[in-house]
Write a structure and sequence with these properties.
This protein is of the alpha/beta class. It contains ten helices and 19 strands.
């Protein structure tokens, strides 16, 4: 296998491209493979764009467990469970429920915070060396809490994170409005959690720019339209077989294939519990009171993110949905929720295309980054925080080869 690449990276989303960067910087020859026709065309294309280094809380928690009956019954317009429910979904769901205890929530949140902190450092190191353009900014982030019961719970989680070095502050609505005047139109706030060091950036532009850099300065190769359907262990490495474009051989492979990873790795007799969580976004011109700080409306489960001269709004969750098509009714629901939250944040009448993507959810909310076989590394299960975790995940995956 003298003609083989050192490492093949399956998946050219932000996690895959960040992994390719970490590997190339260590001197490995790298080939990136993806079934789409360019980088970051799927889940990374138009996500919420927030780099939530201080807010990487695990999804499974006692608070979510208490609200689960209402979520299952479909009374929350922001959340749905896709039908029909498969045996794989039930197996994932039972594992998720086990991660909703107070002890596991704390452990998973602390583990996610560690990875997020590594990602922040890795992003800063990259940009000091190669100043890419992707609407990157340390905008800060505010989580808005409306319920008198939800805000005290958020304060307890904030205290847990602050004890591990995270910079967050609890603000009154008046204090929050002084920092972000766009909140002047928001009523009935119980309080705000402010993460002043959190950042934003366009994930698609990041992936395109970093891949161009890797090709020109680090000699990595990429093959698009290459849908890997099988991993075959062969002497000296792995053969990655496509349906119609032949195969690629590598000494090692790093799987960064999002929701498709669990099916793909079965050909190598590996398993990973991944469940898709479908989400939506739209991008619109800023409104007359567009926020500069990133905003998360915890009641409506929305994020507002300023990307240069555009406003990105993302939300909704459909657990177990595998269809990436944009449902016009759901997109309309997202726009209506955004207008009810921050009516002047965006020019909603001129909203651009709608997007839908599948977030690869691990039951613990902590990505699986492991050397599953001597030849195969998994870097999967990043959930709704793939953009936040990408750089740190790439560093961890690359370090496993050393």
């Amino acid at each position: 296998m003298s003609d083989a690449t050192d490492v093949a990276v399956i998946g050219a989303g932000v996690v895959g491209i960040a992994t390719a960067w970490a590997l190339a910087r260590r001197g490995y020859s790298v080939t990136v493979l993806d079934r789409d026709d360019g980088p970051a065309r799927s889940t990374s294309f138009a996500n919420g764009a927030q780099l939530s280094y201080a807010y990487s809380d695990a999804l499974g928690s006692p608070a979510l467990l208490r609200s689960l009956p209402w979520l299952v019954l479909g009374t929350d317009p922001s959340f749905r469970i896709a039908k029909p429910l498969s045996p794989r979904f039930w197996a994932w769901g039972m594992d998720f429920l086990r991660n909703c205890s107070r002890k596991r929530f704390s452990a998973n949140t602390i583990a996610a915070l560690g990875l997020a902190a590594e990602s922040r450092l890795a992003m800063h190191a990259l940009l000091e060396r190669h100043p890419l353009e992707f609407s990157y900014k340390a905008a800060g982030k505010m989580h808005l809490y409306y319920g008198e019961a939800s805000f005290p719970t958020a304060l307890k989680v904030m205290d847990l994170k602050r004890s591990h070095g995270v910079h967050q502050e609890a603000l009154t609505p008046v204090e929050a409005e002084r920092i972000e005047p766009a909140l002047g139109s928001v009523g009935d706030l119980a309080g705000v959690i402010y993460s002043p060091e959190d950042e934003v950036g366009d994930p698609h532009r990041f992936a395109v720019g970093l891949l161009d850099l890797l090709r020109s300065e680090y000699g990595i190769r990429s093959r698009f339209g290459f849908d890997v359907v099988r991993l075959s262990l062969i002497k000296g490495g792995v053969e990655l077989v496509s349906n119609h474009l032949g195969s690629v051989r590598a000494r090692h492979v790093v799987v960064c294939a999002g929701v498709g990873a669990s099916t793909l790795i079965r050909s190598a007799r590996l398993r990973a519990p991944i469940c898709p969580m479908k989400g939506y976004s739209f991008t619109a011109p800023p409104g007359v009171a567009a926020p500069h700080v990133s905003i998360t409306d915890t009641e409506r489960k929305l994020v507002f993110c300023r990307l240069g001269d555009q406003m990105r709004v993302a939300g909704l969750a459909e657990l177990g949905a595998w269809d990436t098509a944009v449902d016009p009714e759901r997109l309309r629901s997202l726009v209506e929720l955004a207008q009810s939250s921050l009516p002047d944040a965006a020019d909603y009448r001129n909203a651009g295309f709608g997007w839908a993507g599948l977030r690869p959810m691990a039951p613990s909310s902590v990505p699986c980054i492991t050397r599953a076989r001597p030849e195969i590394i998994l870097n999967i299960g990043h959930g709704m925080l793939g953009w936040t975790f990408a750089m740190g995940s790439g560093e961890r995956a690359a370090a496993l080869l050393q």
